[in-house]
Write a structure and sequence with these properties.
alpha+beta, 2 domains, 6-stranded mixed beta sheet, 7 helices, 27 strands
Length: 381
């Protein structure tokens, strides 16, 4: 396996003099970039022209991760040429979140095979219900296939996102890359680092990913009461105060949900994933040190899940935009902490997202919010 990572910005151009000459059906080109490249796709088109036979995938971000640096209005690129592993790609188009489950099934059916070892999913970040998407995937794929990925971002604007389809950025698209064969090694890890506060409340009225009532009270009104002055900045300020959800008071497994939009008229909140009626919900807030420790914990989990990875190793870091808003100028500490834990020589690219896809610990994937999710990919001879 050969690998090269590099970057692009309008000011500096490409960070390398020429693209690696490894175009083939066994080459993966990953591209993470700002939403503005939807209007200026020329740099992406350069890559597509150079890698006509390769699998090209990527999405828009709320910040590009390149090594231990975080940038905006740039591209972070990884080119990986595999020796034995095979690659396939599939895409699905969605006009409405109600199509998310079917889209997940469709992608999985296209890629399913006896030697499928992993799948990386990159999804539109606004028109897709992430919970329904992973439910569709899980209904088709066996639990031993590692499924990871994330929902595309658009800073804290929530206006438009893109996913690469046929070498071009496009809205309303979900793409998936399948990794095949016994030579490929895929590690995964996902951790948060948020503190729970306030009473646990029951979801008394919801529809899919839209929450209307908690304990019989209008959800948005109750949420604003906790936010105080920060309520004026909704929905962006909601990234600092996600919800922790679990099925019942005895359930140790909890998932985190981030608000995408609010509706003042019916006092509802729309989340990146489902908020089932009957679930127990509790507010969360940031703990700076625990967020950084959580990122390191995700890297440690990745190493434990795949202990036999030896170089070269590609790490794909997908962290929630809410974490970036909280960490501010110190955000690079979390991407530095992952590299410190991963195998020496690991090359890292990634993005800040509107949702993260990864197994909770093992088995089928879940939709997460406000986590650092890592996927490591390598190959044995």
């Amino acid at each position: 396996m050969e690998m090269r990572t590099f970057a692009y910005s309008d000011e500096a151009g490409w960070s390398i003099e020429s693209f690696p000459a490894v175009d083939s059906a066994q080459t993966l080109v990953l591209i993470f970039g700002a939403s503005g490249f939807l209007d200026n796709p020329a740099p992406i088109a350069e890559l597509a022209k150079a890698y006509r036979s390769s699998v090209i995938a990527g999405c828009s971000t709320s910040g590009e991760i390149f090594g231990t640096e975080i940038s905006d209005d740039s591209l972070a690129v990884a080119v990986v040429s595999f020796g034995k592993a095979r690659l396939r790609t599939a895409t699905a188009c969605v006009d409405d979140s109600s199509e998310s489950l079917t889209a997940g099934q469709h992608l999985s059916e296209q890629l399913l095979a006896d030697d499928l070892r992993g799948m990386l999913v990159l999804s539109d970040g606004l028109s897709v219900n992430g919970s329904e998407l992973v439910q569709g995937i899980n209904s088709i794929l066996p639990g031993n296939v590692v499924v990871t990925g994330g929902l595309a971002g658009d800073g804290d604007r929530f206006e438009r996102t893109w996913v690469i389809q046929d070498g071009r950025p496009a809205g309303g698209v979900i793409s998936a890359i399948g990794f095949y064969g016994d030579s490929v090694r895929i590690g995964h890890g996902s951790k948060g680092g948020w503190d729970i506060f306030g009473p646990e409340r029951r979801v008394t009225h919801s529809e899919g990913n839209v929450l209307y009532e908690l304990d019989g009270q209008p959800a948005l009104k109750l949420y604003k009461r906790y936010l105080g002055e920060l309520a004026d900045g909704l929905p962006a300020t909601a990234l600092r105060f996600p919800l922790a959800l679990r099925e019942g008071p005895e359930d140790r497994k909890s998932v985190v949900r981030t608000i995408l939009s609010i509706n003042e008229e019916d006092q509802s909140m729309t989340f990146a994933g489902d908020v089932p009626e009957g679930a127990h919900a509790q507010l969360m807030r940031a703990n700076f040190d625990r967020l950084v420790d959580g990122a390191a914990g995700a890297a440690m989990m990745t190493r434990e899940n795949c202990p036999d990875q030896i170089g070269p190793v590609l790490a794909i870091a997908i962290s929630c935009v809410g974490r970036r808003l909280v960490l501010g100028e110190s955000t690079e500490e979390e991407v530095e902490s992952t590299v410190d834990v991963l195998p020496e020589g690991t090359q890292q690219v990634g993005f800040y997202s509107y949702g993260e896809i990864s197994p909770y610990a093992s088995g089928h994937c879940d939709l997460h919010n406000q986590t650092m999710t890592l996927t490591t990919i390598s190959e044995v001879a």
